[in-house]
Write a structure and sequence with these properties.
Length: 151
């Protein structure tokens, strides 16, 4: 085996090991096929999908950030068993970002699958999205508190 091929093979192997040892994270959602683990609707719209990952690596998928929030506060997963929660960056459909790093715009200008009307974006994009669409900015703890209050 040539030295270049050996280096490429070693780099690929190290990359695979790093991925295998890394923290479980979100997985690709089978849009149009997967069902929301809260409301059981088929997950179709890539602008609003979300996921919850447990400490054991089990992934729950949702069609709306509101479903994720409601499931988080009242679902079958105990809070100490949640490793991470992920929401779609509204500006980049299909791209998941950590829920705790997102800002949520609650707006009537855009309808979400379960009518939570929550759009998630990175913090840096929140003010411009709010200026364009109107509404109220919330962080993840505020979204969870609102879900708790309406449950």
């Amino acid at each position: 085996m040539s030295r270049l091929r050996l280096h490429r093979h070693a780099a690929a192997l190290l990359g695979a090991v790093a991925l295998a040892c890394g923290s479980p994270g979100p997985v690709p959602i089978a849009f149009g096929e997967a069902a929301c683990d809260h409301c059981h609707m088929t997950i179709v719209d890539q602008r609003f999908a979300a996921e919850l990952v447990t400490r054991t690596g089990k992934v729950y998928a949702f069609d709306d950030a509101g479903c994720l929030a409601t499931f988080t506060i009242s679902g079958p997963v105990e809070p100490d068993q949640v490793r991470s929660a992920w929401v779609t960056d509204f500006r980049q459909p299909g791209t998941l970002i950590p829920a705790q790093d997102a800002i949520f715009l609650r707006t009537e200008a855009v309808r979400t699958p379960m009518s939570s009307n929550l759009l998630a974006v990175p913090r840096a994009a929140a003010d411009s999205l709010q200026a364009a669409l109107g509404g109220t900015l919330l962080d993840w703890p505020q979204v969870l508190a609102a879900a708790h209050d309406s449950a």
